[in-house]
Amino acid sequence: MPITSGKCTKLISKQTSEELKMTQFIDTKMWALCKKGKVDSRDGLVQIRKRDLERLTTEVMQLREFLPKVVNGDLIEMLQKARAAETMKERLGQEQEQLRQECLHLRSRLDAAQSECQKEREEKLVLREQLWESREQLQQQAEFCTGLGAASCTLLWSTSSKEEAVKDILADGKLQSFLSVAGQTLESFVKSLDGEAKAEQQDSNSHEQQFVLALAGVVTNVAAVTCGRDYLSSSAHVLLETLMQLLELLKPGVFPKLKVLMLMALYNVSISVKGLKYIREFPGLLSLIWTLLEDGDSEVCLHALRLLQSVLLEEALVGPGLLLNDPPSSTGAHTHPGHLQPPPGPEADGPGDTG
């Protein structure tokens, strides 16, 4: 246990009192001897007996011999404890100073971290504002591109109603790229329709729907021309398969205008022998047509029946052997496809592919 300064003072006081008692004891002995002796008035000396003096000397020597053993042992122990206490005090002071320096260092690091955090928070706010601005610009660009695409495809839809225009499109060599974009756009749009409720909430006059309808209308008009449906029958199998898959994805009553245009395009392609063979090879074609016949829209049911008629009657009337040749220019009602023109309003009316 360390000795405090108060305890050290108490031990020193204890030692001093012991020495004082010993001195008083010697003085008392001397005084007693002086009383027994004779006093010489001339010299002021005291005469005592030799035996008493020897006894006093013996006692004093004994005190001088034993007193240091008792007093110095306590003093040495007390001094050692005092030194240990002083050393511990210095060590505790050094540790306290070290802890204070570490505390100051941690406080400075905390201030730096808080400053950096505040800076990052401000940068985050700036980046968030930039993100909102970028989203707004992206939304505006998307709306602009959709409107531009709707306007351009509507003009192309109107132009493709003429056979000469379709021939020019085929001669330009860009039809394959257009059909690839059209198929991807139609697939993306149909998959974005989240059921019947979402489809009913969409504006039928929106740029997005007009864009999709115009793409399907252009494909239908291209298929209405002999050279166009021959091209689709031989080089656009991916698009034809996409159209049939999208008809499977669209639920009954959802976007009937798009269903009608895709059915009309398939019907026009079925006029070609190659196109009819490819459509008939599609798995689940009859089940798809039966599902479309249960649709609530009469136009969808009508064009589903026409496609079914084209698939069944062509095989029955022409026969397997004649399917290898190109069909004549006029073999039945379904061999006279008309052209679709974009409607002035939301309605997709027009001559269609009637005979």
**Unreliable spans:** 1-9, 318-339, 343-352
Sheet with most strands: strand arrangement: 1-2
Rg to the nearest angstrom? 58 Å
Mean pLDDT metric: 78
> How does the major sheet shape up?
2 strands, antiparallel
Share of helical residues = over 70%
Q: What is the first-to-last residue Cα distance?
A: 117 Å
**Binned strand content:** under 5%
Q: If helices are DSSP runs of H or I spanning 4 or more residues, what is the number of helices?
A: 12
Pattern of helices and strands: HEEHHHHHHHHHHH
* Derived structural class: mainly alpha
Looking at the structure, what is the overall shape? rod-shaped
Strand elements, count: 2
Explain the overall architecture.
The structure is a single chain. This protein has 355 residues and is an all-alpha fold. It contains 12 helices and 2 strands. The protein has helices at residues 5-36, 50-159, 163-172, 175-192, 195-201, 207-223, 226-235, 237-249, 256-270, 273-280, 285-293, 298-318, and strands spanning 38-40, 45-47. It has a two-stranded antiparallel ribbon with strand order 1-2. β1 (38-40) and β2 form a beta hairpin. α7 crosses α8. It is rod-shaped and about 170 Å long. Mean pLDDT is 78; it is low at 1-9, 318-339 and 343-352. InterPro entries: ARM-type_fold, HSF2BP. Keywords: Coiled coil. Residues 82-130 form a coiled coil. Residues 327-355 are annotated as: Disordered. One of its GO terms (cellular component) is cytosol.
